[in-house]
Model the fold of this input.
Amino acid sequence: MHPIPDLAAALGLLTRIPVRADPSRMAAAVWCWPIVGAGIGAAAGGAGWGATALGAPPGLAAALVLGLSALLTGALHEDGLADLADGLGGGRTRARALEIMTDSRIGSYGALALILVTLGRWSCIAALDGPGVMIAAMLSGALSRAAMGAVMAALPSARPGGLSASVGRPPIGATAAGLALAAAAALAVHPVVGLAAVAGAAGVAVLAKRRLGGQTGDVLGASQQAAELCALAACAVVLR
Done:
């Protein structure tokens, strides 16, 4: 592990923050993904906490958290969620589903998935107070990126080319290190949050394996969104 190059690689892959990254470190940097996720959550959750401290209603603060998070990531994971929903919803065969997922246009399944998942995330954040917003954003950010890395390591690439195939499968040691960092963070708050995140990502992984034969960048984005939603839902219960 090389902390500085790996962190730069993780930032370059998962965010819009301009950094000079070594492309050859993208897969090995998977252990840094929960750190980057926590950082995104800290920035977005901190803004939400600040908004509530200034008297903003919870719903507006929650929208600020989601908006800033999407701005920092370029809505990378949301795009993956929409593409996967369109592919699985509109493709009767594996080949057709993968073909649909390469289309940049959003369909009805993708739009509905985005609306429902975003509404779910917004509802969970809006249910929390200022400090809870910050904790939930950081923890769900870390857990969902670690879970995404685990899905990438566990499943083969479903097609040649694309972002996921170009990055390569992460090493087991780096993946385990990322999971350990995220698990430690979950244990510091409540273990059920970590279990919820794992369940969300695992559900997407099982579906992708069954329908597509493996993972793609869109599958990884969808697994992050599912894990984050489940983690936020657990936070809304245990942090209130």
